[in-house]
Amino acid sequence: MKVSLYLKDPQSSKETVIWARISYNGNQLKVYLAEVINPIFWDSKKQRARATNKFVNHVYFNQRLDNITSTIAEVYNEVKSELGTIPQKETLKERIKARIREIEPKANPEQNFFNFFKSIIENSERGARINLKTKTAISANTLRTYRTTYSCLLDFENYRRQKINFNSVDLDFHADLLEYLQSVKGFRKNTVGKHIQILKLVMNEALDAGLHDNRAFQSKKFAVPREDVDSIALSIEELDELQQLDLSNNIRLETVRDLFIVGAYTGLRFSDFTQIKPENIKEGLITIIQQKTKEKVTTPILPPTQEILSKYGDNIPKVISNQKMNAYLKEIGMKISCLNEDISIASTIGNSRVIKTYKKYELFTTHTARRSFATNMYKLGRFDIISIMAVTGHKTEKSFLKYIKVTKDEHARILQIAWDTSLKSDLKIF
């Protein structure tokens, strides 16, 4: 006995019904199923939905089809056993139709909230899910965040002593979760927001998969807390002091410093400036495919970068892990006067606004390089924002302006420079 699945209208531009052809002992049955699908998502060779993020519930859809084909085989064997002979087509057809009607999509074991969440993690690990924005595999950092949120929600379930299911995630749930994350766990505001964001992602994918019809999580009141995080950027003067620091007696710190300078004058992320190879360098430019977005960016080789490349034979210094480099940068920062200054950082922890004072070097990380590049290029007032964004990879001016570290006085100075260098000379009125 063989079950094959086909579309009623393979040329349709909208959803069409799936039907099963059941072949046994020279007989054939045609049974229409309740499942429908847009033909653009159908793989006629595999007779299943294609694995694509444009059809987010393809995994669960295919599981239902597997369940149906297995049920058809079970019914055939049952009827054959009962009759003691090959069943007639009409008898078999009625039994199959009756049994298929009993198969509800929501009977899927993935209906369990945590089972479904776990499947998202597992599918991401094996590459069955991709990032819709970048069209690439889910990153290791994102996977870690998924796992952290999964554990956090398990803890919340135990703390609240109420089972989490798809229908329980409403505005009261949101309020209780916020209180738990802020007051009990004492998480920073952005950490709380990240957990809420991933919860909404899980709920949305489950909704698309037909596992629930609860839309409370889509309410504006089901908010994702966020705040701008204070961080540091080094000025060109500070970068110069860093580059001039004599570290010749410590190769470990010298190579880390040199690597940071490359990042600070290219605007590339750690994952990108540590991948620069001679073949990426041509005619005074560095062109590279970004690890995070998989998009090509080109950045100029400015004199400080060229100095480092020449020092290492037109290559970059030896690369170490991001974690180790961050630790070594703080060690370097302690040796520089400008990075020993106090800096106050305000953030929301739990329900309180907290201002904490750090030494500047304590906030010194690999990402400081990229932020320094963006900030310094903007502060010079000589470059179009669009050109800077083309190098840093920012998509909107709004996101770029949030990213850079510029005071109100510096913004005013930038306008003054722009006036003095262009408008004033063009108007010739002064």
Brief synopsis:
This protein has 430 residues and is an alpha+beta fold. The protein folds into 3 domains: 2-103, no CATH class; 111-218; 236-425, Orthogonal Bundle (hpI Integrase, Chain A), CATH 1.10.443. 48% of the residues lie in helices and 14% in strands.
Shape: elongated
CATH class of the largest domain: Mainly Alpha
Strand content: 5-15%
How would a textbook summarize the main sheet?
3 strands, antiparallel
The CATH H-level homologous superfamily of the largest domain: Intergrase catalytic core
Which fold does the CATH topology of the largest domain refer to? hpI Integrase, Chain A
Total beta strands: 12
Report the uncertain regions: 105-110
> Number of folding domains?
3
Structural class by helix and strand composition: alpha+beta
Mean pLDDT figure: 86
CA-atom Rg in angstroms: 30 Å
The CATH architecture of the largest domain: Orthogonal Bundle
Which range best describes the helical content: under 10%, 10-25%, 25-40%, 40-55%, 55-70% or over 70%?
40-55%
SSE sequence, one letter per element: EEEEEHHHEEHHHHHHEEEHHEEHHHH
Give the CA-CA distance, first to last residue: 93 Å
The largest sheet has its strands arranged as: 1-2-3
DSSP summary: helix tally:
15
